[in-house]
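Q: Structure tokens for this one, please.
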Amino acid sequence: MDCSSLSRRSFFGAVGAFSLVTGASAQPGRVWPGGAKAAVSLTYDDALNSQLDNAVPELKRLGMKATFFLTEANAHWRLADWEALARDGHEVANHTVSHPCALSGYSAKRLEQVEIDPMEGYLDSHFSADRERTFAYPCGYLGVGRGGRHVRYARYRKILERDNVVAARTTAGGPNRPQDVVADPLYLHAFEPTYDGDTVAPARRYLNEAVAQGDWAILVFHDVLPKWHADGDASVATHNRILQHVAGLDVWCAPMGQVFDYVERRWRTRPEPAVTGR
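A: Here is the predicted structure, written as tokens:
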């Protein structure tokens, strides 16, 4: 199917036509818009110039809409271009002001007041306050301050909850089962397909797994450059081949906030399977 984003009006108008499958797990091809076998979100971190220059033209050529997690530190250099991108139907979302990764020395108050709240305000001012409030953890780090893992994770989550963030994305894990998304929307798995090398194979395996299981795949890109230089980069050729592979699959491709909204609406009210016998 065409891997392009539905408009919000046509998307929600069509929701009632999509069937649900009762039972403990989703069945591929029966729960996504248009009967697609899986969902895919393309996400880009850090508001990098190479994304505007090299990734966006291929997205436009293929009719795809993506999510761009911006930092104010980078976005302000080409703010007009990012605003135009948002007007074209792409999602822009919070990746903090300056992308801090080492958070052991941060208090929750400092992170909230210096990095997350100001970025939400920046996005409200330059884009729209009426948007899906999604978030990507810089470097995939989920904990703030010191202490045990659960204590550190809880601090970060409380900040996001206070800012009305509905979904937050990491940089690890397999495709997302809709049930797990509803259970913990601030811990969405995602995959960086070119982190260890400039090759299409890891993305192909990950996407094929999502299709086989009927799940939601979230891909993460950073710099998209003429040639691959370092961890996290993707060459233009490899990036474009990955997008072309997505376009050839029977999937629904849409920004992260739109897919999350669909999952939330459909699975939050999903009936529990009937229990027979003891």
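A few notes: The two ends are 43 Å apart (CA to CA). The chain has one domain: 8-268.
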